[in-house]
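Progress note, sequence design subtask.
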């Protein structure tokens, strides 16, 4: 489901479970990976990516339909993951290898930086088409991380952004060829890995205090 490898000072957490939806087990595995990175000495940084066509397709609604979990549990769990990532005391880069939808797209906004595949895959917030309003925490996260116009378009239209369009809208830092997504993310993370974890964590907590409180309020 998850594989954590190290490349110099950079940890790469690769998700490899179909379309990498968030359920109780997958989020537990992600947190375990974050625990290991957070326990590592500086210099260290984190890159998260997917394997195959998906970065993440959001909440595991199939688990809700089968009764394995309930929507509130998954939503709260995903918001805690977003909150933790926002203030993670290491440089973080999302290497968006493919489709990045719904809660997966919101989680990508919790990273310090985002690099996206240019040729295939979309970034999208389809909640308006699914008939599922954003929670206050999710709303606050999106509004804080995107420009007002980009947030308005993404949230009210469900637009699917390819790599170039996502870069132009400021959703991702840049879009690159498929084979460069993870190497470029590692290179960026490596360049930032020596930052003081104590200072970085404090800066992030102050920067994102309001959003984190909103996400964790339920």
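Output:
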């Amino acid at each position: 489901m998850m594989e954590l490898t190290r490349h110099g000072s950079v940890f790469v957490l690769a998700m490899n479970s179909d379309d990498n939806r968030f359920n109780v087990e997958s989020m537990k595995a992600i947190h375990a990976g974050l625990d290991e990175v957070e326990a590592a000495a500086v210099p260290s940084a984190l890159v998260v990516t997917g394997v195959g066509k998906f970065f993440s397709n959001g909440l595991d609604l199939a688990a809700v339909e089968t009764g394995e979990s309930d929507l509130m549990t998954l939503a709260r769990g995903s918001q805690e993951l977003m909150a933790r990532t926002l203030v993670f005391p290491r440089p973080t880069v999302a290497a968006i290898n493919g489709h990045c939808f719904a809660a997966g797209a919101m989680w990508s906004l919790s990273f310090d930086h985002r690099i996206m595949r240019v040729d295939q895959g979309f970034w999208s917030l389809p909640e308006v088409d699914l008939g599922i309003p954003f929670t206050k925490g999710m709303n606050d996260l999106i509004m804080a991380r995107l420009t007002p116009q980009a947030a308005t378009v993404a949230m009210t239209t469900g637009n699917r952004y390819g790599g170039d369009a996502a870069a132009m809208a400021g959703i991702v830092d840049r879009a690159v060829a498929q084979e460069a997504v993870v190497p470029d993310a590692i290179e960026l993370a490596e360049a930032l890995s020596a930052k003081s974890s104590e200072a970085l964590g404090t800066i992030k907590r102050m920067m994102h205090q309001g959003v984190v409180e909103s996400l964790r309020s339920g």
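The longest strand covers residues 2-7. Work on this subtask will continue into the next period as scheduled.
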